[in-house]
Amino acid sequence: MKKDELQSEGRQRLVNAALDLFYRQGYLATGINQVIEEAGVSKNTFYYYFPSKEDLCVAYLKERHKVWMGWLQKEIDKLDAPYDRLMGVFDFLDVWLRKSDFRGCAFLNIASEVPDIKHKIRKEVILHKDEFRSVLKGLVKDLKRKKKYSGIDTDFIADALYVTIEGVISSCQNYGNTVLISTAGENFKKLLTAAK
Asked: At which of 14, 31, 51 does a domain end?
């Protein structure tokens, strides 16, 4: 293996360690030395790629975004009908929250640890949420193309779905179960019916 490949592997090992530790333990509770030890790299390797823990956190959030959004898209793409694809987001939430042992949204968890909204870490959180909202809006636009739902207000429904999902993620994390996902899904169905 070439030197560049080894160094690149070292960077990825650090990001992978952060994917586990920052999500499981929290950003502030995880020290750099623990990340370095878990990654099995030297301090020099860490500082070669990440001048600070904040820089590693930004890389962590970018990777987490890529993984999470990819997983969501993969689950949605299993479905064909626009209505099924839209409602499939609730099924995805159920699977994801259970598999993550109800740790919740990595981005909201980080946001609670970094209160400064202008901080570069918080900017990554906002970028993630903006793209998630965009995906939801795209699903609603696809549904609106169906005659049955042609009268819905795309922005209103997409925002209502986003707020519903954010609330249900927090609730499931808080209670350690997914009971409220079905309630949220049923309420959203009623909203869609009323908005047609």
From this structure: 51
Name which of 131, 19, 26 is nearest 67 in CA terms: 19
41 and 104 fall within a common domain: no
Please report, as a single letter, which amino acid is at residue 168.
Answer: V
**How much is the pTM?**
0.92
User: Tens digit of pLDDT for each residue in 61-94?
Assistant: 999 999 999 999 999 999 999 999 999 999 999 9
Pair 92, 76: CB distance under 8 Å: yes
Q: Is the dihedral of CA 134, 140, 142, 144 positive or negative?
A: negative
By residue range, what is the domain housing residue 178?
A: 53-195
CATH number for position 7: 1.10.10.60
Give me the mean pLDDT over the 180-193 stretch.
Answer: 95
> H-helix or E-strand containing 27?
none
Strands (E), 23-138: none
